[in-house]
Design brief:
Blueprint: H1 3-13, H2 19-26, H3 30-41, H4 52-56, E1 65-69, H5 75-84, E2 92-96, E3 117-126, H6 136-150, E4 156-158, E5 162-165, E6 168-180, E7 183-193, H7 216-237, H8 243-249, E8 256-261, E9 264-274, E10 280-284, E11 287-291, E12 296-300
Parallel strand pairs: 1-2
Antiparallel strand pairs: 2-3, 3-7, 4-5, 5-6, 6-7, 8-9, 8-12, 9-10, 10-11
């Protein structure tokens, strides 16, 4: 009997059972039971977990229009394909109930489960060249952090744009862009765990670990409204107005960190801050040095 059918049988016999107790009885990780429970309550794979109509009702006075896909490989790639075919509009956003090939920074795969994640991408046209948008991922991370904080989730940002609770990852940002004659079309991707996925050798957490009452449609609406405000301000004023708030939300500000590149230590030192391009300022034994994200990954002293 599969784990799914075992849970179904248990729910039939004990419909009011606590899911943590169910996880103990089934000898399964709690996060897997949560995901299976969602599938048990939503047996149709095409049933809308996200509701575009409900979200769009809250997008009045913004240029944002949301669509929901039952399934796709990647929400970012979906919008990029539309852009390449000249079918993408400013403010077009997409969510999916199941993402089969989600991607993160540095080409990493983002693991998701049906009904257990929030994969969101937003297209935004900037009247600026791509090189002037390097701090955009940090602005998006800050907006996302502000939404999570409003839900009483103790998240912090790991430079440049991961959402963390101490050493456990809750989500991340991936911004991709296309150069246009009239500026740049940015594809702003946000991936958040609702349920904590099980990933070998990595600690993860989900929003429902801290805010089980949070509805996914409301969360998507909060994020899009926050982005509309912050990204508009970023285009007009750059990163400077966001810098202090970003550093206050950053997990490693004024702490010792190690930067890695291609499996090798690139630099070690005290994280002093970031500049207006989003580059990391590190106090190293050779003096102050700036690093751009690129293929660099950061580890805090406590995670090593």
């Amino acid at each position: 009997m599969t784990d799914f059918k075992r849970l179904q049988a248990l729910l039939r016999n004990e419909p009011t059972i606590n899911l943590k107790k169910a996880a103990e009885l089934l000898a399964l990780p709690y996060e897997k039971v949560l995901s299976l429970y969602y599938l048990a309550k939503h047996p149709s794979k095409t049933e809308a977990f996200f509701d575009a109509d409900k979200i769009n009702q809250k997008m009045s006075y913004t240029p944002i229009e949301v669509s929901v896909l039952p399934e796709c490989v990647s929400t970012n790639q979906y919008l990029l394909d539309l852009a390449k075919n000249k079918q993408l509009n400013h403010g077009q956003a997409v969510l999916t109930n199941r993402q089969t090939g989600g991607k993160g920074r540095q080409g990493k795969h983002w693991s998701t489960s049906t009904g257990g994640s929030l994969p969101l991408s937003l297209a935004w046209h900037f009247q600026k060249p791509q090189q002037q948008l390097s701090a955009l991922p940090l602005v998006v991370a800050l907006s996302t952090w502000q939404v999570l904080t409003a839900l009483n989730i103790p998240a912090q940002i790991k430079w440049p744009n991961d959402l963390m609770v101490e050493q456990a990852k809750m989500g991340g940002i991936l911004v991709e862009s296309l150069a246009l004659l009239t500026g740049t079309m940015a594809i702003i991707g946000i991936g958040l765990n609702l349920l904590a996925p099980t990933i070998e050798d990595r600690t993860t957490l989900g929003i429902w670990d801290f805010a089980p009452q949070c509805q996914a449609n409301n969360l998507a609406s909060y994020l899009l409204l926050a982005l509309n405000q912050s990204v508009t301000q970023f285009e007009q004023e750059g990163f400077e107005p966001f810098k202090t708030a970003y550093l206050n939300a950053n997990r490693d500000h004024n702490k010792n960190v190690t930067l890695w590149q291609n499996g090798q230590i690139l630099a070690q030192g005290l994280m002093l801050g970031v500049n207006n391009d989003g580059a990391l300022l590190l106090q190293t034994s050779q003096g102050e040095r700036y690093f751009t994200s690129g293929q660099v990954s950061l580890r805090s002293e406590s995670s090593e």
